[in-house]
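Support reply, case 0932

Customer input (verbatim):
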Amino acid sequence: MRVRGLSGEVNKVFVADKATLEFAHLLQPTEGVMVLDLKHLSDDIGTEVSGIVGFTTLRFLDIKLDYRDGLVFMEYKGPKWMVR
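Our regenerated output:
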């Protein structure tokens, strides 16, 4: 698989045939998950970036941002079988 972005092309990209993502107590079975090294991104911003979560994961969450205190609140609003 070839992946390009604003910063150029990614050298090593792996694809997991099947995986279950767990995020904020949400379990999401998925296929074709793309995995790539985000170390350069972590180094650039000075904190570890473990991954990037897309719309297919976030669509079941009500997300509230508290800018004053720097907090993110997530409440699950999707199918009950996806909750752990």
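We compared this against your earlier run and they match. Two observations from our side: Residues 21 and 28 are 5 Å apart (CA to CA). Residues 39-45 form the longest helix (7 residues). Please reopen the case if you see a mismatch on your end.
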